[in-house]
Specification:
Blueprint: E1 3-7, H1 17-34, E2 38-41, H2 55-64, E3 70-73, E4 76-77, H3 83-96, E5 101-106, H4 113-119, H5 123-128, H6 130-141, E6 159-164, H7 167-175, E7 179-183, H8 191-204, E8 211-219, H9 223-238, H10 248-260, E9 262-264, H11 266-280, E10 284-288, H12 294-311
């Protein structure tokens, strides 16, 4: 089972953004130590509880302080930017860290309407142009342009991923020969159907397909402890605006979010992950874990990482 990390750089209780970003580096290093396939960091704007607004900056920092784990964006929000600039940034990273860079792109605003307006003009129009933006970006990444190159040109280009939760995103990924990451943790859509659509479209084009399914998970030493951490963390994130208690609609949202999560001890989590892998026909599972404390988050990933270590081939003692 290939497992990876999606980091939203949450600002835990009593933390500053500086400490949260420092913890992001620690998490990437933990992922490398425990055998996770890749580490991605997300892009958000004007969220007091999420610290990373510039994945490309963090990836340079993380790449310089890790050795072999793949690192990437989950995701660069393409409608905000010119494809050429995005290609330049990730060609730069791929030149600095050969064979390790993933360029994941999405189309969400990543923040409030006010933040979106401050960041870019005509965002909604750019969303409608997403297929054209993706096509232009891929031309630069594949180095298919003549007059303008997105330099420096890396020996190994970044691997491109389209992140999405809809049939449109699945089809768009297949059309451009991109790998596909389905965000089940933030979707009510039928991920199985969408992933089948993506694989079918890739097969029709005679090209390989690759799928990551992203889930929210909290693992602890016992099931009871994991449940408590999950509930406390969900309540804390929902009440960061200072309110006490939840109204009826918030309580319903709380229950919806909890049901989407994988919560349990290592045995529970392993069984759930195996079932998801089989049900979704996923090549890889990516986990996002946000808790009230950084220690709980690290411990969750460590416990899951132990599952990877148990699955690793054992070295022959006679060699």
């Amino acid at each position: 089972m290939r497992l990876s990390i999606l980091d939203q750089a949450p600002v835990a209780a009593n933390q500053t953004a500086e400490l949260a970003l420092s913890d992001s580096l620690k998490l990437a290093q933990l992922g490398e130590e425990y055998g996770f396939e890749r580490y991605w960091i997300a892009e958000h704007h004007n969220f007091s509880g999420l610290a990373c607004s510039a994945p490309e900056v963090m990836l340079a920092y993380i790449g310089a302080n890790t050795s072999n784990i793949r690192i990437g964006s989950g995701a660069i929000l393409l409608p905000h930017y010119k494809p050429y600039k995005v290609a330049e940034l990730f060609h730069m990273l791929a030149t600095l860290f050969p064979g390790r860079i993933d360029l994941g792109i999405g189309r969400a605003p990543g923040g409030s309407a006010e933040a979106t307006n401050a960041l870019s003009d005509n965002f909604l129009q750019q969303v409608w142009k997403m297929p054209n933006l993706v096509e232009e970006l891929m031309m630069y990444v594949k180095q298919e342009t003549e007059l303008v190159k997105a330099r420096p040109l890396p020996v190994t280009p970044p691997k491109t991923w389209l992140l999405g939760t809809s049939k449109k995103s699945a089809i768009l990924a297949a059309e451009h020969g991109m790998a596909y990451a389905f965000g089940q943790f933030m979707s009510d859509n039928d991920g199985k159907e969408i992933i089948e659509l993506y694989r079918g479209a890739c097969k029709e084009k005679g090209q390989p397909s690759e799928v990551i399914i992203t889930l929210s998970a909290i693992c602890a030493n016992t099931r009871k402890e994991a449940e408590e951490i999950a509930e406390n963390s969900l309540l804390w994130f929902m009440k960061k605006d200072g309110k006490h208690g939840l109204n009826e609609s918030e309580r319903q949202e709380f229950e919806v979010q909890k049901k989407k999560m994988i919560i349990g001890d290592p045995k529970d989590v392993k069984e759930r992950l195996k079932k998801v892998q089989q049900d979704y026909n996923a090549d890889e599972i990516m986990l996002v874990t946000n808790t009230q404390s950084a220690e709980e988050r690290f411990n969750s990933y460590k416990l899951v990482g132990e599952l990877l270590r148990c699955q690793a081939p054992q070295k022959d003692k006679n060699t």
